Automatic annotation (TrEMBL), chain A:
Gene3D superfamilies: P-loop containing nucleotide triphosphate hydrolases. This is Spermidine/putrescine transport system ATP-binding protein. Residues 4-234 form the ABC transporter domain. Keywords: ATP-binding, Nucleotide-binding, Transport. It comes from the Bacteria. The keyword Nucleotide-binding applies. The keyword Coiled coil does not apply. PANTHER family: SPERMIDINE/PUTRESCINE IMPORT ATP-BINDING PROTEIN POTA (PTHR42781), SPERMIDINE_PUTRESCINE IMPORT ATP-BINDING PROTEIN POTA (PTHR42781:SF4). Belongs to the ABC transporter superfamily. PROSITE patterns: ABC_TRANSPORTER_1, ABC_TRANSPORTER_2. GO terms for molecular function: ATP binding.
Automatic annotation (TrEMBL), chain B:
This is Spermidine/putrescine transport system permease protein. It comes from the Bacteria. Residues 74-288 form the ABC transmembrane type-1 domain. InterPro entries: MetI-like, MetI-like_sf. It is found in: Cell membrane. The keyword Transmembrane applies. It comes from Pseudovibrio ascidiaceicola. The chain crosses the membrane at residues 21-50, 70-99, 111-132, 152-172, 220-242, 262-289. Gene3D superfamilies: MetI-like. Pfam families: BPD_transp_1.
Length: 348, 300
């Protein structure tokens, strides 16, 4: 297993920095996801780790060895890209055998290893087919098999599920995670899909403008994002102006809010706070007032399948709430919303 | 009894398609097809406007095919055609790969490659005379450098049956065409497979032979078919830069057409039809072979 370190790594294209002095430690056998919007530098970072792109400055280390200038062929990495890069003139079998044949393995040994790998990716029946005769999911499994058969020390996945439909994507996520757990190789995956990142990653590095904005476990990034940009990127949330009034209390457009222990002000001087849509409790209008409970009126109701999304007017502000669609409320209904103190997160 | 007859939508669509391409068909069939039919008729002895009507006779073909000169001319024609196409390909493939990469002077490089496309063929022939002839630039430079005593001693490149000058002009003119055709195929193919091969550990040589070359094969086939057909049909370069008897088939036909005796025009047509036949056989064989190659790779 390989530890991957990026030290002060930068890449500049035509004077514009694509990756701006990032530092990153990926532990042996860790599944790390580089997450960010298009153009944030995540693919460029991955290509530099792979060796397909040379850094403008900084260095890349594998197990304490500087590999910055090491040719891609010698890095012992595997790459599965968004378009898979399958050789269209070769059968599935020949595609998977390619990495072994260029290493000079005997034909018998190649066939044995290819057969085993096709079993693992459940494509034995498709061995003689050409890529054009496969579905998107099958092509992806061929690309993964072709990579894994060479036993890479670091597996790099560049948006490998971007061209798959939603159902297949869910299935392939599970498949990739299972393979990672079985082989235990250090894995870096690039994606702009938050759900994919949270489902797969041990840790997520959220990137904006060539920099890592937040590096942490998925639940921490989702519930306690480092800044407003990360909070907005990681999913739907109510972000509102606030003013600290005392330890553990803030003034908000909805009224005075008590904070949970984890949201203690400490040295922070926040001006904004965040609360996820699904964290807010909504119920019929209630007489007896409670801490962090406010009366509001539904101004919009949207059906999203499993969930209902309500936009509410609460005090001087607007709140968006998501609730299971088994309960249906309608526009104009008076309701009480409770903002759980422990779910309110102050943003820097 | 009354029956309702309706025209099927598919038939209507077919009729509409034919009507849409009719203007083009009329021009093609009238000009190109008409000329082909007339040429074939002449080669079989039909030319009443010259006072000759022996149709149908195979005498012009017999006279041609039974002469050893014809086979010598055919061999020479095919040699120039194959050699120039092959050399052109060998030069164009690396050039097209280079053209698909970005480097410091890549735009200048692309412009230089395109340059011969804009220069007429006859200018290329004139340049070959100025550069490669015994009184030409290369011979004078060689004499100036003391490599030879006199420009006249310079190795004879033009006016030989090796056809170095002819092949040089063909190659000079067709390399840009082949390069641009292949670079278009490379651009469509993208870098994904090359990068995948690199990550899998393949060397540059392995990538070229096992990944790039098979993928640009359709472009190679198209470009070489067009250039080969042109090379065996062109007559200016062999006429001016060739070694004289035996001539290539297009030059032989041209000489018949230029003869004061109109009756030789029919013999010329037999040469042209024979050339078209040979060219067609070679191209069909090439396409069949390529189709088998593609089928083996699941592309057909």
């Amino acid at each position: 297993m390989t530890q991957v370190q990026l030290k002060n790594l930068s890449k500049v294209f035509s004077g514009a920095p694509a990756v701006d002095a990032i530092d990153l430690d990926v532990a042996c056998g860790e599944f790390l996801v580089l997450l960010g919007p298009s153009g944030c530098g995540k693919t460029t970072s991955l290509r530099m780790v792979c060796g397909l792109e040379q850094p403008t400055s900084g260095s890349i280390w594998f197990n304490g060895r500087d590999v910055t200038t090491l040719p891609v062929q010698k890095r012992k990495v595997g790459l599965v890209s968004q378009r898979f890069g399958l050789f269209p003139h070769m059968t599935v079998e020949q595609n998977v055998a390619f990495g072994l044949s260029v290493r000079g393995l005997s034909a018998d040994e190649q066939m044995r290893q290819v057969g085993e790998m096709l079993e693992i990716v459940r494509l034995s029946a498709f061995a003689k087919r050409f890529p054009a005769q496969l579905s998107g999911g099958q092509m992806q499994r061929v690309a993964i098999a072709r990579t894994l058969v060479t036993k890479p020390e670091v597996l790099l996945l560049d948006e490998p599920m971007a061209s798959l439909d939603t159902l297949l994507r869910t299935e392939m996520r599970q498949f990739i995670r299972d393979l990672h757990d079985e082989y235990g190789m250090t894995t870096l995956l690039v994606t702009h899909d938050q759900i994919e990142a949270m489902d797969l990653a041990d840790r997520i590095a959220v990137m904006f403008d060539g920099k890592i904005a937040h590096l942490a476990a998925p639940d921490e990034i989702y519930q306690r994002p480092a800044n407003e940009q990360t909070a907005r990127f990681m999913g739907h949330s109510n972000i509102f102006e606030c003013t600290p009034i005392s330890e553990g209390h803030i003034e908000s457009p909805y009224g005075q809010l008590m904070l949970g222990v984890g949201s203690s002000l400490g040295a922070k001087q926040p001006s904004k706070a965040m609360l996820r849509f699904e964290s807010i409790q909504i119920e019929e209008c209630r007489e007896a007032p409670q801490e962090n409970a406010f009366s509001g009126t539904i101004t919009r109701a949207e059906f999203l399948g499993a969930m209902m999304r309500y936009t509410l007017q609460v005090g001087e502000g607007s709140l968006t709430v998501e609730e299971a669609s088994t309960i249906k409320r309608k526009t104009g209904d008076a309701v009480t919303v409770t903002l759980p103190p422990e779910q309110i997160w102050l943003l820097q | 009894m009354k029956t309702n007859r309706t025209v099927s939508p598919a038939l209507m669509q077919n009729l509409r398609d034919v009507a849409e391409v009719m203007p083009l068909l009329v021009v093609l069939l009238g000009l190109f097809g008409g000329a082909v039919v007339l040429g074939i008729l002449q080669s079989f002895g039909y030319a009443p406007w010259f006072g000759i009507n022996e149709f149908p006779t195979t005498r012009y073909f017999e006279r041609l095919w039974l002469s050893s000169d014809f086979w010598a001319s055919l061999g020479l024609t095919l040699y120039y055609g194959f050699a120039a196409t092959l050399i052109g390909l060998v030069i164009s493939i690396p050039l097209s790969i280079a053209l698909s990469k970005k480097f410091r002077v890549s735009r200048t490089f692309a412009a230089l490659i395109r340059l011969p496309l804009m220069v007429p063929y006859t200018v290329g022939i004139a340049l070959a005379l100025v550069m490669l002839g015994n009184g030409g630039l290369l011979s004078r430079i060689s004499a100036g450098l003391g490599l030879i005593d006199d420009p006249a001693q310079f190795v004879q490149i033009l006016k030989t049956h090796w056809g170095c000058g002819i092949i040089a002009v063909y190659v000079w003119k067709q390399v840009p065409f082949m390069t641009l055709t292949l670079s278009a195929v490379l651009a469509r193919k993208g870098e994904d497979t090359v990068e995948a091969a690199m990550v899998l550990g393949a060397t540059s040589r392995q990538i070229f032979w096992r990944v790039t070359l098979p993928q640009i094969m359709p472009g190679i086939v198209s470009a070489s078919l067009i250039c080969f057909a042109f090379n065996i049909g062109a007559f200016e370069a062999p006429l001016i830069l060739g070694g004289g008897y035996p001539d290539t088939l297009p030059v032989l036909a041209w000489r018949y057409f230029q003869d004061a005796n109109y009756a030789f025009q029919l013999q010329g047509m037999a040469v042209v039809v024979s050339l078209a036949l040979v060219s067609g056989i070679f191209l069909a064989a090439y396409l069949l072979g390529y189709r088998r190659y593609e089928r083996a790779r699941g592309r057909v």
